[in-house]
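User: As part of a screening pipeline, I want to sanity-check one entry by hand. Below is the sequence and the SMILES for copper (II) ion. Please return the complex as structure tokens so I can compare it with the automated output.
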Amino acid sequence: MARPGKCFLNVAAVVMMLVLILPSLSYAASYNVGDDFGWSYDIDLDTWVADKTFYVNDVLVFIYDNTAHDVVSVDANGYNTCSTSTYYGTFTSGHDEITLTSAGTWYFICSYHCDFANQKMAVPVYSS
Ligand SMILES: [Cu+2]
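Assistant: Here is the complex for your manual check:
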């Protein structure tokens, strides 16, 4: 008992689901922090952040020499005072991929160079 009409509807439903799902997946972007400089005080990180728009689920890739630097996710006070006392995570692999899982401002510092070399950045993250 062939029912070509129902088959067409199933195909159409699958296509519609893909059309709805695929754009939301492809929007997540990945950024190498500092581009060719990496996570470094040799680049103005504020400027690096300023010309980009970050969204939830985007990924920041911190590439650095882990014998010289680290990445500490801190709150606003930690960012302003270069304090790691209220941190949300310390990353030390030299190649850390951090997914921006919520909207708001994310703060990152290098515990070695935050205060005297300004190796820190505040990243505004938007919901969509
Ligand atoms: Cu550093």
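Points to compare against the pipeline: The beta strands are 30-32, 54-55, 59-63, 71-74, 87-91, 95-99, 104-109, 120-126. The chain has one domain: 28-126.
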